[in-house]
Amino acid sequence: xxxxxxxxxxxxxxxxxxxxxxxxxxxxxxxxxxxxxxxxxxxxxxxxxxxxxxxxxxxxxxxxxxxxxxxxxxxxxxxxxxxxxxxxxxxxxxxxxxxxxxxxxxxxxxxxxxxxxxxxxxxxxxxxxxxxxxxxxxxxxxxxxxxxxxxxxxxxxxxxxxxxxxxxxxxxxxxxxxxxxxxxxxxxxxxxxxxxxxxxxxxxxxxxxxxxxxxxxxxxxxxxxxxxxxxxxxxxxxxxxxxxxxxxxxxxxxxxxxxxxxxxxxxxxxxxxxxxxxxxxx
Length: 282
Description:
- By secondary structure, the chain is α+β, with helices and mostly antiparallel strands.
- Helices cover 24% and strands 26% of the residues.
- The chain has helices at residues 62-75, 86-108, 158-164, 224-227, 232-236, 246-259; strands spanning 3-5, 12-16, 19-26, 36-42, 49-57, 118-126, 130-136, 140-144, 151-152, 186-187, 210-212, 218-222, 266-273.
- 43% of the residues are buried.
């Protein structure tokens, strides 16, 4: 049984025997509406948690609607039992990316105001032992472990390509005029190239959609409204303060993003994995 609470105006906290999840979605300091959407939802038997961050794009209410369609599509995952094999979980999650993409494109064709709407998305199915994650665009997942390098997803973005080929430096990314241009997303991709969903299911790859989860690990899923203003080092340093709760960690990250401009919507989900007590059912 999970327990939800609202300890602050911004952060929602949910508790399970094996994880605590804090989440927030803030309009920021400049935007007139919040086009981000988040989802934290367990399977009915609490065997796994679905976490999704969608960052909508498009004029009018297009971005907000695209993100909403994304969440509505992914939410259907918990209506079916969790597959037994990890590869089947991956295939099920992957299928929702294609379903959401189709739903956004179909609705975008029905209204002039919604033409070209789209959404970036990062999604994870998390169990006490491991998680499967996928993304399209520049919404990110970070995996924080004690005494281990920080893992993060690699953005589908123009600036990432420019960085990889040496055209810009890491210091130039945050202020680059094309920093918000993605090369993949759900829905409106006119001029953005092919539809990419990563990581691929290739077990010999260094980067895999399936990763193990250890007690005391953190998973952070967020939109670019957060990671554009907070450095990887600052995110990794969350593990240096074990006394901070997931709520405190998210509150701190949100405040940093707001203090540094807050020009975009800011959304994040932070999953803190627990050790299951010896008296608990396996």
